[in-house]
Design brief:
Layout: H1 3-10, H2 18-34, H3 40-55, H4 62-74
Helix pairs in contact: 2-3, 2-4
Length: 81
């Protein structure tokens, strides 16, 4: 069990699936490279809130992660001053 799985267990959450871990890494990479590295933690928090709000009482759904990743790709990168 890795650290993130232990964190999830301590927060009474299911561990992330391999697919979910890949989505988190991919989304983090998009924000870090297209926007700014220091925006990544806040962006991932906002994404987590969005996923949680959309899930409600439903079980996990890959469509939510896919939609968020597509949104990240549609957002224009931050232009350097």
């Amino acid at each position: 069990m890795d650290w993130v799985d232990r964190l999830a267990a301590d927060l009474h959450l299911d561990a992330l699936s391999a697919h979910e871990k890949e989505h988190v890494l991919s989304a983090s990479r998009e924000v870090a490279h297209r926007v700014e590295r220091k925006a990544t933690p806040s962006a991932m928090y906002v994404i987590g809130l969005a996923v949680g709000a959309q899930m409600g009482e439903r079980t996990r759904d890959d469509a939510i992660e896919d939609a968020i990743h597509a949104l990240l790709l549609r957002l224009p990168p931050v232009e350097e001053p």
